[in-house]
Amino acid sequence: MRQYSPDLTPPWKKPKPVPEVPAEPGLVVEEPGSGFCGAVIRCEAGTVTLEDRFGKHRVFPMEPRGFLLEGRVVTLVRPSSGPARPTHTASGSVAVPGARARVARAGRIYVEGRHDAELVEKVWGDDLRIEGVVVEYLEGVDDLPSIVESFAPGPDARLGVLVDHLVPGSKEWRIAESVTSEHALVVGHPYIDIWEAVKPASLGIESWPRIPHGQDWKTGVCRSLGWPQNTGAAWQRILSGVRSYRDLEPELLGRVEELIDFVTAPA
Question: Which residues are in the DUF3097 domain (predicted)?
């Protein structure tokens, strides 16, 4: 007969139970031993594969108490085979099922063009609605100083602006430097156009082609890639390849997050 062996560990020394969380695709967790943080892309044979925002993959064993979710220790478990609600938005934020859009703030985020606005909406739209932030497009930034002056940003109405090709010495750089309001923030990415902020691998191409100076950049891209020279159709092809923040370059991700934080900061 097997003898019963009582557990003599004092209650205060026993580890506290932690939540078990299904390792659904898109769930963002951190492996504390390595500090690696990424989204779940695969779960099999007692392991989970994470992908960070730079596209790097790491495989970890699904051990008890093995991960951090929003700073809390959790145990990842294999997800059920049935359909599950998404746990995170396309931007990587925690999804809030049934959340209602907030009344629009006085503050705004301006982007250069319609393509920029559509990309921001696709990845950050859920977050922006919860925060009550409206994104508008300008059709260029040549008149940005007067646009900012007309908007009259203040502590309760902050203005964030996302600029294409914001590199030292460029025309865009000089325009951005002329905006001096403490309640307006102008940031940008280094790409000639927002198209380039989409990772080539997400579109099945090796890299974005270099277009000689003086040529229309978008038309040149279509020609170089063998796409029909219809920039509207090309953009829809590009946008359809974006499923989440993992399909975008970090130089854009950081700037959009910075603008959202700026516009939603307490007065």
Answer: 20-79, 108-264
